[in-house]
Specification:
Elements: H1 9-20, H2 44-55, E1 77-83, H3 89-104, E2 108-113, H4 116-127, H5 129-138, E3 144-149, H6 164-171, E4 179-186, H7 187-190, H8 193-197, H9 211-217, E5 221-225, H10 235-244, E6 248-253, E7 270-274, H11 276-281, E8 287-291, E9 302-309, E10 315-320, E11 326-330, E12 347-352, E13 360-364, E14 369-370, E15 375-377, H12 383-405, E16 414-418, H13 422-426, H14 433-453, H15 459-473, E17 479-482, H16 492-503, H17 505-509, E18 523-526, E19 539-544, H18 554-558, E20 579-583, H19 591-601, H20 610-621, H21 625-634, H22 649-655, E21 669-670, E22 677-679, H23 682-695, E23 698-703, H24 708-719, E24 728-738, E25 744-755, H25 762-773, H26 777-790, H27 800-817, E26 822-827, E27 846-848, E28 855-856, E29 872-873, H28 876-884, E30 890-895, E31 903-904, E32 910-911, E33 915-919, E34 928-934, H29 945-959, E35 967-973, H30 979-988
Parallel strand pairs: 1-6, 1-7, 2-4, 2-5, 3-4, 5-6, 8-20, 8-21, 16-18, 16-19, 17-18, 19-20, 34-35
Antiparallel strand pairs: 9-10, 9-15, 10-11, 12-13, 13-14, 22-27, 23-26, 24-25, 28-29, 30-33, 31-32, 33-34
Helix pairs in contact: 1-3, 12-14, 14-15, 24-26, 24-27, 25-27
């Protein structure tokens, strides 16, 4: 299989914001062909573009909060894009190079990353066949990205030859049409004086014999990954600005560094913000389900690092938190002196560490890095405890694997383990004790699964049993590892294993190898080496068999498994809720709360207080404000001053989601064993089966053809609407002034209005109009000639704004004129797997809760006729609908899984209904099926005209399913519509 990259809307939004920076900027093309074209960073058009982007004028791109609109002038134009882990920033910054070349002619880019693993991950992506195909398709093969990678130089006797990667990059010329030159390097290579500052016996670009000088002459644009690793005072950042002197620095990351003096986040012209809250809430990444074993005894030795002496004799002092006594360890000394469970773990180094967040600390022999204040728990390191964790991990894995295997198109499930030591897995010539124990537990589970599913005669079950048997036949092939020490191994088998894990992503996602044999590897082991620069979208579980020790970012820890999965055909899955199970030891019970707090702290707008929201929430819930306050107080969620009780924030938002206006939705992070699933009641599904299969059949939308006369009438009607739109720009001035309470506030005013209209060549305007409307170019041209004959068109008529208005007015014309000129027809064929059924049509045992509703009321009795075994909903209105549908006339009802039924609209896009009912007529026949779509407006007349047309199209779609023995009715439900009245009116009609 090959991964198929898709054009994702949020990534295109990022590219639109980033490329808009240079819109209308004067570009100097007189530079040498081996250098980038140039611009003046002080050009006021750049500042104007950035201000417009940040203020939210670009369609679909949210405004940047004012406190984040910082700007720092350090000699190069700085542009920032905030993108959460797992949302595809590597693809975005790679495509940015293509877009900046296509739109403006830039050809030279340096990609700077903070570590070798990230460099290898970036290299693997850019050079992968699936990325090359994606960009070749996107740009018609006209553009080609030449990637040079700067690796450590091998020393050789004789002449000192210029680093080949830099030479190749420097010689790339924009005279080679369609060539984009990119140089990939780490900060370590950037700062390597022996490589970068050496004077070589060879020159490039005529005179440059020093790499810094050669790169400086190319006037590159620098793309910086993981900006929190490149603080402005760091040597690497200074080297970029002072030695390379780039035209611009584009920074991409989920986290940005803090400014030393103010403590504010270092955003420099932030033009795109896709933070953690947005990524989780919009289902752009997996949710996270936290699991940990609850230790009833809690008896273990806990050591807290209190001080260290980095000078000889180097020593580290820990405090035994149970006895209060200090324990001092020398270099090389074993922690087993404190507790036998620490056997094999020694103090490897004291002082400077390789951990990016810990400048000075203690590094243990298992690779764990501790800062002062970090705590170790001995029980976590015992073999018994690790066996318990592995057993639970295996149970979790096979539960997820079966669900993913029986999808219409299978999805391979991977589990990633972080472990203590290389020796416990690799061993010395033979497998280590941890690997042997894991394979023993795995073999037992495989045997049990085969016996359990042997009697299921469905094709998908038999195929799965065959896969399990192949796994049992060669248990060692099911797992593999990668550790830093593997880079220097001579063992060919280990080399092949590592190469498969690091560089062959498609292989890990495939159920079969190149030879057609089953590919059963799906359990991966590492020591934190895979924590950065590597990810795989199909990691559904991460298992920490040891604590991470230091208090690093929780988002970084789960980041390896956040990407949305791809199926066996390489297609990325979206539009439904997936979960990453994160299995941790009992010492990290607060992990979920810390993760939620970290995500919410990343929100662009802070949470409003309970005191501020209480009147509005009480009105939404239809109860008295005082009564609601007493209710919150009684439950211990708020104090007498209406402040949230510390540590109860997540409980408040889960019980009363209306208070959570900007934070993380309650279903995205699961903890305490709370289920992420909702069961499907098979007896209820059987009553809904005919309706479900009917609405899940394939239908095609047919539009009547327009005659040439009708096309001309359409074009004339649109052009008569005065679609000409000049573009007006403005200079905005923000002044810091005192507010009424003697504090400071920002006061904005418009200083000057100017004409920003940008014309488009006539031929290009016609092509763009055709691309967006499919109106024939010759008919649009003829219509423009007719319009110009009546009234001369303005000289700047052919601009982007006028084109946009032409397209919008055509869409409105089409919505109205085609209301009676479209129809739906069913395509015969098998339905296959659906959101509620497997490939054989049998109902699934359960479905992920997030695909039904983000809220779950454990205190509400589940109605007998409800399709699911839990009371799950998205809004107070939906809660009322579920609770009130207990009518004799209702046979069965349920929420329709999110985006599982998409009604194609004749004017583009889709709409998705929310509820489905099977109703009993007065004569007792089960022949009336009812589909409902809820709308967030008070009354039907409040719906926009376009929304009313969507509802009319949906009604036509469901009407087309009705036959002599099968009726389907569709209605929108607004806030004032109660479901009881709707059902009774329908049956009466």
């Amino acid at each position: 299989m090959q991964i198929r990259l898709q054009t994702l809307e949020h990534q295109q939004r990022a590219l639109r914001a980033l490329t808009r920076v240079f819109d209308g900027v004067d570009l100097d093309t007189s530079t040498p062909p081996e250098a980038n074209i140039a611009f003046d960073p002080a050009d006021p058009q750049i500042a104007h573009n950035i201000a417009e982007i940040q203020s939210g004028v670009l369609d679909g791109i949210a405004a940047i909060p004012r406190p984040w609109r910082g700007h720092i002038d350090d000699g190069a134009l700085g542009i920032d894009a905030k993108m959460e882990t797992g949302t595809g920033k590597t693809l975005v910054y790679t495509q940015l190079m293509y877009e900046l070349n296509r739109m403006y002619g830039f050809t030279k880019f340096i990609v700077l990353v903070p570590s070798t693993p990230i460099k290898e991950g970036t290299k693997a992506f850019v050079q992968s066949d699936y990325a090359r195909k994606y960009f070749a398709d996107a740009y018609g093969g006209r553009l080609s990205l030449q990637l040079d990678v700067l690796d450590p130089q091998k020393r050789s006797k004789g002449r000192k030859m210029f680093p080949s990667a830099i030479a190749s990059f420097a010689h790339g010329s924009r005279l080679s049409r369609g060539r984009i030159s990119a140089l990939l390097m780490t900060d370590g290579m950037l700062l390597s004086k022996t490589t970068m500052a050496a004077d070589y016996d060879q020159t490039v670009l005529g005179t440059a014999s020093v790499p810094y000088e050669a790169l400086r002459q190319t006037r590159p644009i620098v793309i910086m990954d993981e900006p929190h690793r490149f603080r402005r005072e760091n040597k690497a950042y200074r080297a970029i600005v002072e030695e390379i002197q780039p035209l611009a620095v584009f920074r991409f990351g989920a986290t940005f560094p803090k400014l030393d003096k103010s403590g504010k986040t270092d955003y420099n012209n932030l033009v795109f913000n896709l933070g953690a809250v947005e990524a989780f809430n919009e289902q752009l990444v997996k949710g996270v389900a936290i699991q940990y074993p609850v230790d009833a005894s809690g008896e273990t030795t806990r050591l807290k690092l209190t001080s260290l002496s980095p000078r000889k004799p180097k020593q580290a002092t820990f405090k035994n938190l149970d006895t209060g006594k200090p324990l001092t360890f020398d270099l090389g000394e074993s922690l087993s002196f404190a507790d036998g469970a620490f056997a094999g773990i020694t103090v490897e180094s004291i002082g400077k560490t390789e951990h990016p967040a810990i400048k000075a600390g203690v590094t243990l022999s298992n690779g764990q890095v501790l800062a002062i204040g970090d705590t170790l728990a001995a029980r976590v390191y015992s073999h018994t405890y690790q066996s318990l964790m592995m057993q639970q991990a295996i149970e979790n894995h096979f539960e997820a694997e079966w669900e993913n295997f029986r999808r219409a198109i299978k999805v391979k499930t991977l589990t990633l383990f972080f472990i203590d030591s290389v020796a416990s897995y690799r061993g010395d010539g033979t497998s280590g004790h941890l690997r042997l124990r894991f394979e023993e537990l795995l073999a037992a589970k495989l045997t049990a699964e085969i016996e359990n599913r042997q009697g299921d005669t469905s094709p998908v079950a038999q195929e799965y049993v065959a896969y399990l048997k192949a796994s049992l036949a060669d248990v060692p092939a099911t797992n593999g590892g990668y550790f830093a020490a593997d880079n220097s191994t001579a063992d060919e088998a280990i080399k092949a294993e590592v190469d498969d894990i690091l560089r062959n992503k498609e292989s890990l996602l495939s159920f079969h190898g190149a030879d057609g044999a089953p590919n059963t590897r799906r359990f991966l082991f590492s020591k934190w080496t895979l924590r950065e620069g590597w990810d795989n979208p199909n990691v559904f579980q991460i298992v920490k068999l040891r604590s991470s020790g230091s208090d690093i970012s929780k988002l970084q820890e789960v980041g390896r498994g956040l990407r949305l999965p791809v199926d066996a055909k390489g297609t990325r899955l979206s539009g439904e809720q997936f979960y990453l199970t994160y299995l941790i030891d009992y010492t990290e019970q607060e992990f979920a709360d810390s993760l939620v707090s970290e995500i919410n702290s990343d929100a662009a707008v802070g949470q409003a207080t309970v005191k501020e929201l209480l009147p509005k929430v009480a009105a939404e819930l239809g109860i008295d404000e005082t009564k609601l306050f007493i209710e919150l107080l009684t439950k211990g969620l708020v104090d007498s001053d209406k402040n949230v009780v510390a540590g109860r924030e997540n409980d408040l938002y889960e019980a009363y989601p209306a208070f959570n206006k900007t934070g993380l939705k309650p279903d995205k992070i699961r903890k305490d064993g709370k289920s992420t699933k909702v069961g499907i009641r098979p007896e209820r599904y059987s009553e809904l089966k005919e309706l479900w299969e009917t609405v899940n059949a394939k239908y095609y939308l047919r539009l009547e053809d327009l005659s040439l006369d009708e096309i001309d009438e359409c074009i004339d009607a649109v052009l008569d609407l005065e679609i000409y739109r000049p573009v007006v720009g403005r200079f905005t001035q923000d002044t810091i002034v005192k507010d009424a309470e003697a504090g400071l506030k920002i006061q904005s005013e418009t200083k000057r209005i100017f004409d920003a209209t940008e014309t488009i060549p006539y031929g290009e305007w016609l092509k763009l109009a055709f691309a967006q409307t499919y109106l024939p170019i010759d008919r649009v041209h003829a219509g423009l000639v007719r319009r110009n004959a009546k009234t001369a068109l303005p000289s700047d008529f052919f601009n982007k704004a006028t084109l946009g208005e032409f397209v919008m007015q055509f869409a409105e014309w089409m919505q109205k004129e085609f209301l009676e000129r479209f129809s739906y027809s069913r395509i015969d064929g098998l339905v296959g797997g659906t959101a509620l059924t497997d490939a054989d049509g049998a109902p699934l045992e359960s479905i992920v809760q997030g695909n039904i509703g983000v809220l779950r009321d454990e205190g509400e009795k589940v109605p007998d006729k409800f399709l699911y075994d839990a009371f799950v909903y998205d809004s107070p209105k939906e809660r009322d609908t579920i609770r009130d549908s207990k009518l004799d006339e209702v046979v069965v009802y349920g929420k329709i899984p999110r985006r599982s039924i998409r009604v194609p609209l004749y004017f583009g896009g889709t709409t998705s209904p929310d509820f489905m009912y099977v109703l009993k007529r007065a004569d007792g026949k089960l022949s009336l099926n009812f589909v409902v779509e809820t709308k967030d407006v008070e009354k039907h007349s409040d719906m926009r005209e376009s929304e009313q047309l969507r509802m009319e199209a949906a009604k036509r779609f469901f009407d087309s399913m009705s036959s002599e023995n099968f009726d389907v009715a569709f209605k929108p439900q607004v806030k004032r519509d109660d479901i009881v009245t709707m059902i009774k009116q329908l049956l009466k009609a």
